[in-house]
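[agent] plan:
  1. take the single chain provided in the ticket
  2. run structure prediction with default settings
  3. attach structure tokens to the ticket
  4. add a short note for the reviewer (M.T.)
[agent] executing step 1
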Amino acid sequence: NDLWYKNAVIYNLSLSTFMDSDGNGMGDFQGLLNQLDYLHGLGVTTIWLGPFQPSPLRDHGYDITDYYNVDPRYGTLGDFVEFSHGCKLRGIRLI
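[agent] step 2 finished; step 3 output follows
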């Protein structure tokens, strides 16, 4: 299990541009959650998420101001928990 990454199919995505669930033009965790079956069907075994924590966006989101929360533009901490649980049910890892 230590070498899981050698056979992984890793899908790198930017949450803000992936899937919008509420029509505001910005991707969010609910939109990503709705597409988990699609990604799983493609054979994705690992999702590599870009930064999704609150940030002033001076460094493309990598200048995080709160490591324990979710930027409200992407949803809530509950949305993230629901998404991560959906990944676990499908055997998809998050990095």
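[agent] step 4 note for reviewer: The mean pLDDT is 94.
[agent] ticket updated
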